[in-house]
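Checklist before submission:
- one chain only
- standard amino acids only
- sequence pasted in full

Submission:
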Amino acid sequence: MEHKTKFKDLSFKGKIDYIWDYYKIPIAAVIFILIFIISFIHEKQSQKDSVLDVLCVNSQSDADTTDIMNKFLSDNGYDTSKSQITLNQNIMLDINNSTDYSQIAALTAYYNAGEYDISIQDKDTFDHFAPGGVYADLRDYLSDDILEKYKDSILYISDENSSEKYPCGISLSSDNCTLLQKTNLYDSCILSICHTDSDKKLVKSFCKYILL
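Returned file contents:
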């Protein structure tokens, strides 16, 4: 009883100091839990669904692709506040440099796991990986109009099972590609389509969007 009376007679600051001295650990725990819950809810609310995943090897790090990607999403009925096209620009390597082994291994893992729908890369990287069959046949995704437009820029590789050559890359520059014209993602590059389980129709639409 005397203890309660002493607390009652304390000044406001004294009461705060008293409570903190005796209960700071549980108070800190509650604050931590509240911060975690609020952060978790905010992250979930702000997280966007990735409808298309694009791998950009050795791209310009300061490239701004937001507008062109959002226009594609809007034109195809997606809410850009909830959906996005994910660009992975984290792979930077010199395919001829053995010290870049970790990056080469990461890129190999990406291709084998089928994590990406489209791969854009420099010519050396394309030449290294294309013989392994990691890029899909462009004829399965691109219209005759696109194939005709880029007929002089298409790169072929031989199928390891039939020895038949098939198109699996298109050499692009700012002269012939909307994506490069409207961004500084690359000066020049090779566009390929990965073996993926994603919506084939959406991949076709995106390729048409940036190539025509």
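Reviewer check: The chain has eight helices and six strands.
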